[in-house]
Automatic annotation (TrEMBL):
It comes from the Eukaryota. Signal peptide: none annotated. Residues 16-278 form the Disease resistance R13L4/SHOC-2-like LRR domain. It comes from Arundo donax. This is Disease resistance R13L4/SHOC-2-like LRR domain-containing protein. Keywords: Repeat. SUPFAM superfamilies: L domain-like. The lineage of its organism: Eukaryota, Viridiplantae, Streptophyta, Embryophyta, Tracheophyta.
Length: 290
């Protein structure tokens, strides 16, 4: 077997890593696994046997202790030095990303696609070395002006997504987003320069902080997708010189002030001379899709 696709991310279902899986050394794709709390150290070490993996997706990381977080990090580092090109990790807000992956001494520099979901207070310190990275997904908890300044220098970056699972829109997360905005001067500024190949920018989050695109920001951006329940505001769309389409997807049950601010975004986009097409949709919060 070369491709093992398991679990269901929307329903929070994942395949528990087993000894049988770690023996499938021909695997090129392993998607939808869970690294459980209390997993045997031998299993985490055995992950390093999967040297043919090109795509590795972890849907859940449990509370790792007694050195298991270091073993998981070691496995990721080893696989990244072999064939791995696509890596996605959701740490389920256990802190693995901040505590362990951020401190990697042999980071996955050669990836083409990277996804980091969960509790991510800042982009990894080594991300500026990822010169082959084309597609990046980050937890919106890492969204700051400084984060965007770092990402702007990645030469091959084509697509950036900031996302957050709707079930994680609890007070702790809201506080993180509020503090990030304050630390960025009251707005998340997208400054001029960089992002030389970026064509797609997406925000998929229950709460979208105040965004301001400065003159000369993201000069090649063609598509902007905004999906939210609450939004503080989006300004400077007219400064996105190559923008062709704005997709605005709003919760079917937004607060009243969010309705007004969403309408404001629609008006601002429609007023841009020869501006982008505007597609408006809504999503049902009762569904699992987010």
């Amino acid at each position: 077997m070369e491709h093992l696709l398991a679990g269901n991310k929307n329903k929070r279902h994942a395949l528990t890593l087993t000894e049988e899986v770690t023996k499938m050394t021909a695997l090129q794709t392993l998607s939808g696994v869970e690294i459980c709390t209390g997993l045997a150290k031998e299993l985490l070490r055995a992950l390093e046997n999967l040297t043919n993996l090109k795509k590795f997706t972890i849907y859940k990381v449990g509370e790792l202790a007694n050195g298991n977080d270091e073993l998981l990090l070691s496995a990721i580092e080893h696989l990244s030095s072999c064939s791995l090109k696509h890596l996605a990790i959701d740490d389920n807000f256990t802190g693995f990303l901040d505590r362990s992956l951020n401190a990697s001494q042999a980071p996955p520099e050669h990836l083409h696609t990277l996804g980091l979901s969960g509790l991510l207070s800042q982009v990894p310190m080594w991300i500026d070395r990822m010169h082959n990275l084309e597609k990046l997904t980050l937890s919106v908890t890492s969204l700051t002006t400084d984060t965007l300044l770092v990402l702007a220098e990645l030469p091959e970056l084509f697509s950036v997504t900031f996302s957050l699972d709707a079930v994680k829109s609890d007070p702790i997360v809201l506080k993180i987003l509020h503090n990030n905005t304050l630390e960025s001067g009251g707005k998340i500024f997208v400054l001029a320069g960089g992002f030389r190949k970026l064509k797609l920018l997406r925000f998929r989050t229950p709460v979208l902080p105040l965004l301001s695109f400065e003159d000369g920001a993201m000069p090649e951006l063609e598509r902007l997708e905004l999906r939210f329940k609450m939004v503080e505001g989006v300004y400077g769309l007219e400064n996105l010189a190559s923008l062709q389409q704005v997709l605005l997807t709003v919760s079917s049950q937004p607060p009243e002030d969010a309705k007004a601010k969403a309408s404001q975004i629609k008006v601002l986009a429609s007023l841009i001379p020869n501006g982008p097409s505007l597609v408006i949709d809504e999503y049902n919060e009762s569904s699992k899709e987010q």
